[in-house]
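okkk here we go again. third time trying to get the 2-oxoglutaric acid bound version out, last two times i messed up the smiles copy paste (missing a bracket lol). double checked this time i swear
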Amino acid sequence: MTNIDLPNAADVTEALERDGIAVLPNFLTGAALASIQDSFNRALARPSFNTYIGYEQNEKWRVLVENLLALDPHCLTDCAVHPLVGDVLRSYVGPDVALVEARGWKTIRTKRTFHGWHEDAWYHPSVKQRPREVKLAVYLSDVTSGHFSYIAGSHLANANQFPRHWPQREVSPMMHMARDVKGPAGTAFLFDTAGVHRQTTPVLDPRNVMFFNYHDPAVPLQDEDVLAGRYRPIQLNAGFLPENLTPDQARLLGFGRARAAPAHEGVIGRAELRRYPVLHDTVAFALAARLEIQEAQRTVRQLRRAVMSRVRAKTSGLAARIGVSGTRAPSLQH
Ligand SMILES: O=C(O)CCC(=O)C(=O)O
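finally!!
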């Protein structure tokens, strides 16, 4: 269930314009939260491999749960196309805003500073005027450490420069502007990804979170993201869609926006940039070898059966010729 006491869209948009971040306490509660937590934990049970869809991992500290719109219906209705979120995004990003990514992750317990301050890089450097992009984040675990932190107002200062990583010495003078988002599971926040932000360390308890990313899908992407197959296509379980989906919600989900896209953008899981390609090939080889061995064992069993039935046929023919009934072949007698 979503919270009816949420702030109104105008106030949230104003906070985004001013600070670059707006916190939505108790955004997700009750059955909707419990359902997503359960689905998320099931996906975290084991890695995706071959026929099993679980989590993906490309670094030690974070375990990714991709394609939230295929994970649980509440990710779609209670988060991605939540009416408040839609209203804020249309006025802050623009009428062409659409969901481009819906993924979550678990950060493991760590004291290591594995994730630094940054703005999100996503659009092609040929785009001169920085396009707006907003993420909706929803905590799925209670967060008291390893929380999200955002330098309020930094989205305005960075508006005309290409996104980059920020060393701590550059951020230290702005730390009095840091918004630390801690809170129970169900706490959400919207932030402009042009602002300087990070996940803080230490992470004393594993943290589960979902991130829904919105920008105008017509904006060209940076080369790395095209190679990595990021942002498109976005998978959706059509069965999760509510019967009364509004035209605004359909547009926010990007309905019809990929019709003119080149074919390679529509193919899931064919990114040119693979993480750990040697390991990937080794595992694929091991699976192929396992299947070949199975097939060889089957052939050996078949051959053995064929030989045995020929031996039986021969010995019973021999027995018939010498007039002994029920006698086993001499070679099998001892
Ligand atoms: O996991 C976090 O708290 C930080 C997320 C982040 O840096 C991002 O989404 O760009």
